[in-house]
Specification:
globular; binds fe (ii) ion; 9 helices
Length: 273
Amino acid sequence: MQSIPGGVGLGLRYSFAEEVLNKEDSPRWFEIAPENWMRRGGFFRKTLERIRERFPIVCHGLSLSIGSPDPINREFLKELKDFLDSFHIEVYSEHLSFSSLGGSYLHDLFPLPFIEDTVKRVSRKVAEVEEILERPLILENISYYWKPPGEMEEWKFINSVLEESGARLLLDVNNVYVNSLNHGYDPYEFIERLDLSKVAYIHVAGHERFDRIVIDTHGAPVIEEVYRLLEFTLERTGPVPILLERDNNVPPYEELLSEVRRLEEVCGAKRAG
Ligand SMILES: [Fe+2]
């Protein structure tokens, strides 16, 4: 497996894709949602080709629905494999969740019941996906707003899936923080209980507070508490790649680059001990 590039990457958005090619300053690598690019031709494909010539790219999918009782969509995966092959992208991550049921796509990510049956089902599907894609699958912990019934804690569920499936973890530190507020637990304890030896890379993002709920909107800068949780995590994982996600209220590219620089400082400081 091609390893994820080191340092800090940025989620690529259409709004600044062209600017990436015209600027000296840039992040070390980019992450894209393949669903946003794989059926696009013309200008979009050309731009992505040019970006790929200069930067490593990893894919973070949206619609795999790995935990659904529905069968895996093999047609979609074949199309995805062609896309990954054509851009020489080896790293693919997805959400540990479901987003389809009874053949209908729900356009959102829903949490899975934290039970042994789900661990087994997800693990079987991970093997199926990896066989079709000929690449390992990395799974991300999601944010969720309703706690599914279950027989185990979420951290135990995640560890069990990683162990049974052999998948590595995309640890979204902001999702841990948002869930800790909405579901009332200690995010530091949660991180300590995860099997951090399996972390492939880390996501950070911004969120927004509403009346009684905190929503993982990816529409605001990363807040100080999430930086602190990230530092705490890096002290335990050692240096791992970090990706800044920003999907809504996307600010000028310059502003995102300054957040990337700050994250690099955090990584650099941790690396220096
Ligand atoms: Fe994420």
